[in-house]
TrEMBL record:
Organism of this sequence: Lynx pardinus (Iberian lynx)
Stretches that traverse the bilayer: none
Jacalin-type lectin domain segment(s): 14-151
Protein name per Swiss-Prot or TrEMBL: Jacalin-type lectin domain-containing protein
GO cellular component, one term: extracellular space
Alphabetized UniProt keyword annotations: Lectin, Signal
Alphabetical list of InterPro entries matching this protein: Jacalin-like_lectin_dom, Jacalin-like_lectin_dom_sf, PolyBind_ProtTraffic
PANTHER family according to UniProt: OS11G0524900 PROTEIN (PTHR33589), ZYMOGEN GRANULE PROTEIN 16 HOMOLOG B (PTHR33589:SF1)
Pfam families in alphabetical order: Jacalin (PF01419)
GO molecular function, one term: carbohydrate binding
Signal peptide range: 1-16
SUPFAM superfamilies listed in its UniProt record: Mannose-binding lectins
Gene3D superfamilies, alphabetized: Jacalin-like lectin domain
Amino acid sequence: MLLRLTLALLWSTCLAAQMYGRGGGKYFSTPRDHEYEITGIRVAVGSLGILKSIQVRYGPSWTTMSGCPSSGTPQEFILYPGERIIGISGSYKMYLRSLKLYTDAGRSATFGKDDGNYFFVYPDLFKNMLIGICGQCKLLGITGLCFEWDYPLEFWDMIQQNSTLPEN
């Protein structure tokens, strides 16, 4: 029962988000970490130029690969301390062909090659950053991605500290 509740909560965020790409196939989601922010992204690109799987690093640890079983070549982008992903662009046909990440430090990283329909996504709120990725995949690769945005952990720590009042 607890597993079903956890999965329902994780997928409610993904299902409510905008899907970039055609979508279809098996759902996946990168596991979340509530102690660390994203510090790296690893994407496997197949020989046909299709994005196969995605992996997120929170703090010092990588999550398991999410997406389709991958025989692709992994490429990774490690963020500098305090750097955050604040925008994403990419392209797709039947499958995702490219993904480009933009950071608040002015850096970017590209996975795959642009081909097909293009998208650009960024958070609705100022100071929000990427905190999670979910999507769908079929046998050959990723068919669509959704991106989850929120405030940095330090914002929530500050809110929690300010809501704790000393007792008299």
